[in-house]
Amino acid sequence: MVDRTLDTAADTFPKLVRANANRLGRKTAIREKDLGIWQSSSWKDYWEQARLIALGLASLGFARGDKTAIVGDNRPQLYWAVCATQALGGIPVPLYQDSIEKELAYIVDHAEARFAIVEDQEQVDKLLHLRAQCPKLEFIVYDDPRGLRAYSEPNLMSLEELIEQGRKFEQNHPGHVENEVAKGRADDTAIICYTSGTTGAPKGAMLSHSNLILTSLAGARADGLREDEEILSYLPMAWVGDHVFSYAQSILLGFPANCPESAATVLQDLKEIGPTYFFAPPRIWESILTNVMLRLEDCAWPKRKLVHFFLNLAQDMERRRLAGQPVPLLPRLLYPLGKALVYAPLRDNLGMRRVRRAYTAGEAIGPEIFVFFRALGINVKQLYGMTEASVFVTIQRDGDVRLDSVGTAVPGVEIKIAESGEVLFRSPGVFQGYYKNADATRATVQDGWLNSGDAGFLDASGHLKIIDRAKDLSRLAGGTMFPPKYIENKLKFSPFVKEAVCIGQGRPFVVALVNIDLAAVGNWAERRGIAYSSYTDLSQKPEVYGLIHEDVARVNRSLQEDAALRGAQIRRFLILHKELDPDDEEITRTRKVRRGYIAQKYAELIDALYSNRSHVQVEAKVTYEDGRTGTIRADVTIKDVG
Fold first, then answer.
1. For the whole model, what pTM was predicted?
2. 397 lies in a domain?
3. Are 609 and 574 in contact (CB under 8 A)?
């Protein structure tokens, strides 16, 4: 069991950062790539900047319990703002930087945030527009001043101005931050992370310092994390995973977080940093795989054949290893050659040469994608967790990685399976509750046990196996089990499929709505001289339907091999005329499908899939980032798989 008591001198993150400043001093704590150059800040810098920001907030009247909205890309200044807020006994509330105004307004108002510290003009403009809807929001502070020189709105200031006010405040209030830090306790709320809201309005999960410290330490110890790790901090700060890996574990172990220059440069920055510790949700692994396959298609024929041969060989070997089967002699003899010619160069090109451990979580990863990266020699492992658990519930240990499980319980976590098949657990990381939503808290946690919402089971060796979301797992009209996410993940192994939604609950057979990957399919089309003018135009090309038909047929062949899912093969599919978009509320900011909303919005298309129609005329409204809307009209083709 995990010791749930914490030393009062190290029971909050500001206390831990201050201790790191004294213990680690000039060791690098965080880096940021700016204008092509990596800028480093030490642990002394980290604490001093957080302290100055805290003084600035105090000069504006910041009180214990106040909330600070944090909005922007991963930046040292925003991580320091999180620490500064906590130092004063306040609660940071990070938000997704690509949220539209309506989404920001809901969370800022619901959280009752008095302060906002944001990255740049884009976020300032959003917050200024929604101020009337958020009466508690008083002060907006920005880091990047570009484009903001002429702004004269009240209580809008730069981070530099805030820090300067803090320095003046300190002259009359010496020791103010230190006194406030000393008042902090392990059970104080450290952060409010809002859930993605797949089934309704987002809920604010309150996590204490104790929740995060104990769980982050347990996860680190379970997998042997060290002080010399390097992590790339590129996932949204609003997502609890980034908060645990880039903030909590970085502070607890003293390793540096590295902030990329922009979302567009992540893959290049990954190569430059060469992290030892890497996390990516399935959609990122899918994107990396798509890029690999696209580059491979551009290779000369002999090289392409050679690479495919060794990739297939390595993947077959990895499948055998994961299944506990012996690997034949010939592949073992050929593997070193493949490592020299293919695996090591490719791993190096991806920036993963130094990776000691990599995780994936958030949703189920396609087994083919998982095997592909492990076959390259990248130690990718599955982790099961959620916001309400402070991330860690189970983890795959080295030497005990299995294709069909998400690992065994992290120390301190107890797991049981309800009669309904739902996974329940309790641990030091179970959250304090949903902010201003006691009913939802009571429905989620009973007698200390948290209802995960996932259907699964424990095998004889304690490995947890997740089948699907409990509410999504169902059966076809004929009784065949229907796990939509499992089938969708098989489809998304294709570099040409970006997203897929499978329908079948209570229906006679399974149908699929498919989103193509514009970059991958566009590249494929250009090499074949297929002209197109837009996503909508490309998606309805007969040649593209033929391409996706091959992927659907591949999935059906794999389902045919599983007696329990043989009846769940896809009979008909269509390619959607637009990409599923968070701005249109079809998927969340973490790219989780809002099934109920899609079933309602695309009811006409779904009905057509279950009819004998081969085409359907559609008209769809789309929402742009600035709130403007437009309309897309298309003649969508429906294809039988046969």
1. 0.85
2. no
3. yes
